[in-house]
Amino acid sequence: MPVILSRETVEILNIIIFVQRTFRTNSCAIYFFAASCAQLIFIYFTIFLNGLLIGYNKDPAQTSLVFCKFKLYLSSVTLILAPSFIILACIDRLIISSSSVKRRGWSQPRFAYRLVAGASVFCLISSIHAIIGATIYSMPSYSFCYVTQGPYMIFLTFYSTIIYYLLPPILMIILGLLTIINHSYVRRKDLHLLRMLLLQILVCTIFTIPATAFQIYQVTIDNQFKDDIQNARDLFFLSIALALFCIPHCISFYMYTITASIFRQEFKQIVLKCYQRLFPKRTNLRQIMIATHTN
Fold first, then answer.
1. What is the mean pLDDT of the chain?
2. I need a surface site. Which of 48, 106, 114, 176 has the fewest CB within 10 A?
């Protein structure tokens, strides 16, 4: 699982960078920090466990109903939690780009912490349906954790289409365009965060389109008969769509590094501090050599 570990590592780097002094007093960076925490949970509990199931046929949710309900519940929470924080970041950048000084005053860390807490509670409550609808299907040769068929399955199809795939990118695009229109009022430091946010919006929108299209396709042909070949095709396209949908949750560190020099500088400072602690003698020798050369 080296790829999964690298994804976890970059999200941890995001978290470390966003708690530095440069960022922790900025409300937009607080939303990025919260989104990185949500993405780390999503990577570990959703992608990692599904990788164990697909690659090694090992998943505690196959045998434990409690873990099955917990897994689907946590997956449901993290699927809407990270986009919710990005939407809050979009609102924050729209506020900071306002020509009104009073409106810009709402872009404060104390308000950001409250909104992060409020959004987290809302996502936790709104995802309780996953606990109710999760169950284990037992077959002669294997078992798997999934949702119950019938009315709940119909509800979940429409719910996921709107909440997971349609609403977040639409809100991000609208808020991002409004912020671009008013970007002349944004300070230079905030421009770095704005570029990070806009690239995040672009990537999330692009990689959400396949999953959105597949969900709409599923809704439109829900009552039509499908043979084994068509089911196999649908499963193949669903796997691709879900894989693409997960990509934005794993590459935010690279997007931030590409778009913002302030983020790169903080990363370099962290690497330098780690190097100085691991190799203090080499660091001191290098400083002496530089000082001698300068003199």
1. 81
2. 114
Give the model confidence (pLDDT) of 63-112 as tens digits. Answer: 788 888 888 898 889 889 999 999 999 999 888 887 777 888 888 999 99
pLDDT confidence band for 36 (50 / 70 / 90): very high
